[in-house]
Amino acid sequence: MDLTLTKADIVFDGGDLDCGSGLVLLIREHMQRVPDGGLLEMRSSEPTVGLDLPPWCRQVGHEFLGSIPGEGDIRYFVRKRESEAETQALAEDKAKARSYEWRLRIRASDHLTSTAYCRNFSFKVGQPASFEERDKHPSAVELLLASLGGALATAYATECGRDGLDAEDIEVTVRGSLHNVLSHLGIEEGDPSLATVMVKCFVSSMDDEGQLRAVWQRTVERSPVAATLAKAVALETKLMVV
User: Fold this and answer.
1) Given 75, 117, 141, 240, which residue has the most CB atoms within 10 angstroms?
2) Which residues, in sequence order, are bridge partners of residue 43?
3) What is the residue range of 122's domain?
4) d(CA 20, CA 17)
5) What CATH number does residue 50 fall under?
């Protein structure tokens, strides 16, 4: 079969997701719209997909037809083979995703330092909040804000890629302030929580600014970290196209 002449029933872009980051769930979801014996085309820029997709297809009963280079990505073609087991597997995958729980273990270690352990990672956490110019480890507040910024920067790059937008040099700045820092220090009564968080995302692109902003808004709305913080603080997000 000449894949360059092949017209798929359904085409979707998996961006830079790998099979362990929700891509399989997306493939199964899109495959539901493909007729039995029809063709799904999935585009991906993640190199490991070429290794993981063929054995997955054999496992679930679909036919992997091959791949060809695309415009900055790889185009993968899969022939659908309908089965009740695969329909059930999709339902099970959704149930697992809904109930997934992230788990960490943290131990107090050195002076003003704790060590966090999650999956195959361990990292140092400094003071709850620090006002020094230099420290050995980031404070807990800084890690919280870095989590927000990192989540949005990575997700925005992925979403732009999936929408075919050429977004280069994505950089996010995050600024945060407390309601009353003195209450955190125990000097006076008050509210020690974060009062405001300002996020600015800078992106270099020649593509349509309206599309870039729509993708940014979608990225913020879908972010678990941003959605959680928005319920607790005055969270402001801006996109700057340069």
Assistant:
1) 75
2) 13, 75
3) 102-137
4) 8
5) 3.30.110.40
